[in-house]
Structures are given as C-alpha cells and as structure tokens.
Amino acid sequence: MKLPNIIITGTPGSGKTSHAEEFVSRHPEFKHINVSEYAKLNGCIEGYDKDRDSSIVDEDKLLDLLEPLANKGGIVIDWHCCEIFPERWIDLVVVIRCDNSILYDRLVNRGYSENKISENIECEIMCVLLFEAQENYNKQIVVELHSEDLNMLDNNIDRLDQWLNNWLDNNN
Ligand SMILES: Nc1ncnc2c1ncn2[C@@H]1O[C@H](COP(=O)(O)OP(=O)(O)OP(=O)(O)O)[C@@H](O)[C@H]1O
C-alpha cells in the first residue's frame, strides 16, 4: 500500500514532536523523522551557530539520506524548517501554531535564553513558518493547526486521521 509523506513544522515549542509522536503511535506503519535528532544520529551536523545556540544541519547530506525513505513513502518529517524538502516528496504540510503566552511559558520551562525565547516568539507572531510553508508548497496541501492544550492535540490528530483515510482512498 502506498503511504503519503507528511511534514509537521512550526516554531520550536509549538508542538511538532507531540503531534508526530501521537500520529505515529496511531499509525505505526509511518516513520517519525525528528530532523534535529536524526541529523545528529546520522552525521548530518556541519557546525554550531553560537548566536542561535543551535546546531547547523548539513542539508544536502540530510536530503540524500532521506530520499530513499521519501520515495518509499510513509515518513513524518518533524522540523522547524520545511522549505528544503522537495515538493514532489510531500503530500501534506502541517503547520502547528501556538498562542504566544503559552509558547513563552513552554520555552521558559525548557530553560531557553531570553534571546532564543524572543526570537521564537517573534517567529510565531510573524507567522514565519506558515508563510514559508505556503510559499514553498501548493497552498491546498498546507494546513494550520493550533496546539494549546491536550484536547486540541487530540482533535488535530483526529483531523489528520480523516485526511489520511481520504488520501489512502484516493491513492491506492
Ligand atoms: N497541545 C498541547 N497541549 C499541551 N502541551 C503541549 C501541547 N503541544 C505541545 N505541548 C508541550 O509543549 C512542549 C513542546 O512540545 P514539542 O516538543 O512537541 O514541541 P516542538 O515544536 O516539537 O519543539 P522543538 O521544535 O523544540 O522540538 C512539550 O512540553 C509538550 O508536552
């Protein structure tokens, strides 16, 4: 059976990994690719950005490694950046959104620096990840989902289940 490839993107702390994990726990035939972890485990880190306090991913190497998985289908890519993934790979782009004050508390709880918190809150206010998704993929495959409490998370995954059922009906 053919499976779709999904990107789950959004500002750090918005809830990408929570969504990807819940979706894959309901659909174990999918593989969750948490790009930050995957890049570290697979030697795709090419440096460190001191200002941003984050690793720099070797995107070419990452894409080479992901290509066979994407061609097979059934990957859920979880990263705060979506534009590097070729359009032909991707069937759905989910942009997770979060209320600023809730996001702020989540980032404080993670012990992020004031700079890193401000940068991420600004990114959320300016809808950076939503625009990035809409500019790089057909708008019809981009969906914005809010993730402020567990009820919302559950409803979002129900929506993704429905989308998946429709996709499977239309593509198999
Ligand atoms: N809908 C939600 N309701 C309650 N808590 C949530 C929800 N979504 C995420 N969280 C919590 O917010 C924190 C950040 O979530 P998560 O790690 O899924 O975000 P992320 O976008 O993957 O972050 P990063 O990009 O840094 O990996 C976690 O503590 C998680 O439990």
From TrEMBL:
GO terms for biological process: ribosomal small subunit biogenesis; rRNA processing. It is an enzyme of class 2 (transferase). Residues 109-119 are annotated as: LID. GO terms for molecular function: AMP kinase activity; ATP binding; ATP hydrolysis activity. GO terms for cellular component: cytoplasm; nucleus. Gene3D superfamilies: P-loop containing nucleotide triphosphate hydrolases. Keywords: ATP-binding, Cytoplasm, Kinase, Nucleotide-binding, Nucleus, Ribosome biogenesis, rRNA processing, Transferase. It comes from the Eukaryota. It holds the Pfam family AAA_18. It is found in: Cytoplasm; Nucleus. SUPFAM superfamilies: P-loop containing nucleoside triphosphate hydrolases. Residues 34-57 are annotated as: NMPbind. It catalyses: AMP + ATP = 2 ADP; ATP + H2O = ADP + phosphate + H(+). Its EC number is 2.7.4.3. InterPro entries: Adenyl_kinase_AK6, P-loop_NTPase. ATP binds at residues 13, 15-18, 110. Interacts with small ribosomal subunit protein uS11. Not a structural component of 43S pre-ribosomes, but transiently interacts with them by binding to uS11. Belongs to the adenylate kinase family. AK6 subfamily. Broad-specificity nucleoside monophosphate (NMP) kinase that catalyzes the reversible transfer of the terminal phosphate group between nucleoside triphosphates and monophosphates. Has also ATPase activity. Involved in the late cytoplasmic maturation steps of the 40S ribosomal particles, specifically 18S rRNA maturation. While NMP activity is not required for ribosome maturation, ATPase activity is. Associates transiently with small ribosomal subunit protein uS11. ATP hydrolysis breaks the interaction with uS11. This is Adenylate kinase isoenzyme 6 homolog. It comes from Pichia kluyveri.
